[in-house]
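Show me a record, fold above all:
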Amino acid sequence: MTATTWNLDRVKDFRIRTKIFLSNMILILFISSAIGGVAIYASTKFIESNTRDLSMQVIHQVSDNIEIRAKEAFTSSVYVLSDSNIRQIAAEQGEQVTGDNYPAFRSRMEFLLAQYGNGNPYMNAIMIQTRKGQVYWWENKKGLDHTLNHEEVTAMTSKSSDYLKNHDLSISWSPSLRKQKELFLIRDFVDLSQIDQSLGTIVISIDSDYFLSLGSNSSIIKQNNVAILNPLNELLAGGGTPGMDNLISRSLSHPLKENDISMANVDNAGAGSYLFVQERTATLGWRVLCFIPMSELLSNTRVLVFVIALVSLLAVLISTGIAVLLSNSTTRNIKILEQTMRRVEDGNFDVRIIPLGRDEIGSLSIRFNFMLSRINELINTVYKEQIAKQQAEFTVLMSQINPHFLYNTLGTVKWYARMNHQAEIEQMVTSVIELLKSSVRRVGEFHSLEQEINQLKNYIYIQKIGYGDAFHMDYEVDERLLESEVPYFILQPLVENAILHGIEMSKGSGRIVLYARIEEKQLLLIVEDNGIGMEAEQALNLLNTATRKESVPGVTSIGIHNVNERIQLYYGEKYGLSYESAPGLGTKAIVRIPHRTHRQRRNEHVERHDR
């Protein structure tokens, strides 16, 4: 109930243009769909009914012709039984068949059988196995790549004889024992002079096309969609493809009732719908199956579907045009508002909208102008000023050393120290030059932690010249974190504060340690000293804008303040610099930034450049 009410409320909030447009579209689509659906359904059912009747008539003719051809094949077997010469050899009357004279008898039998086989191009072979186990055969060798041999004929005639015994039959049609498109007519070789005496078994192999080709002239029943089953539901002809074999297997679940001669119904198989038609032959009791794809039967409805779809499309287009004309006057102001918003999306925040009436659109335009004013105020008075302030302070910090006019001079000093074998002076100048290089050649605001530490080491070397052994610097950083991305120039100000306000004021042996570790996908850089420390309140106020100049006597703390503000500018308010300290226990400066590798940023830069 709640969901229904909510949907109705949403409809009430739609604009007039949307309501008019939707009402027209729903009405036209409903009428078009209803008329079209009924017309398509009626025509489909009409075509299906007519096709069902026609297919049953055609399959009745096909089943009658199949029986006629089966009788012709049966008659050929009777002729073979009636041939006295064949019967004499099979009964071994007059001369016994031995291993020596068997080739002669087999050649003569083949000649006799050829008289009955050559007259029918669909007859593949005639095979005889006598009561004493001798086998004779004739084979139509036309188009065959393999001919029968004695072992194959013996195996097939023996299995055929067992088939008759297992089913208690004297005559039967069975599937081929070879993997070919053929079927077998099997019958006892009855001695016509003594009907109760069997001389062996006769097997006649007939090509399945002999029966399947009967429906090839019909537009409905074709050779590839017909199958024939014997009364034992064994496949005599048809099939051979996965789809057809599946349909034949499914047909076993739709047997003909005892009093039914034929039936037709629609079967939904995996590949689509089929009209399944079957008929039982009158004499043999064979089931003739035919599977007609419904897509072929309903192909005539495509023209009707096209006409209905075209009319519906025209109706929709006309209704759309009317809806647009009716709603144009009420949506003109909305379009003006939308175009103005697009100009704002492109970055033009100085654009304004003239109030468009006193309706909800006019009220919206006034609110939109007010919103733009507030955005402009935010950008001009807050964001730009913050960025300018950060850039100014960073420029002041970096200008404490001006590398451009010192670089060449320091290079000369370094060369002079080397010429005079002053290694310490040369190393000190080298460190200064490296610091200058990192300032002059720096690209972007980020680099790797390893580069930041190398820059810090140059600074420490210079400080050690002045302070001597008053302090020493340790680095406890996992090598795996050296590829981490950090903002440029964030460690040196922290170490500088540790030296000036922690180590120097303590006048003792100072130790500064740089730690780096990962916590909850964040990179923590900790600069810890063992200097004089400070009160906890003083440490908390160290980064406070109001107290920044008084946080440490005599120092403005512009360096650490710049580090904190730059980190928050880059990453957000939850990141930055914090201090932990206590009197006499030293101080910890903790930098917290998101952990990512410098390689990832370079890859992202390449991707953005490619796009």
About this structure: The mean pLDDT is 78. The chain has 17 helices and 17 strands. The longest strand covers residues 194-207. The first helix runs from residue 2 to 12.
